[in-house]
Amino acid sequence: DQQVKQNSPSLSVQEGRISILNCDYTNSMFDYFLWYKKYPAEGPTFLISISSIKDKNEDGRFTVFLNKSAKHLSLHIVPSQPGDSAVYFCALMDSNYQLIWGAGTKLIIKP
Amino acid sequence: GAGVSQSPRYKVAKRGQDVALRCDPISGHVSLFWYQQALGQGPEFLTYFQNEAQLDKSGLPSDRFFAERPEGSVSTLKIQRTQQEDSAVYLCASSLEGTINQPQHFGDGTRLSIL
Question: Smallest CA–CA separation between B115 and chain A, in Å?
Answer without folding.
Answer: 20
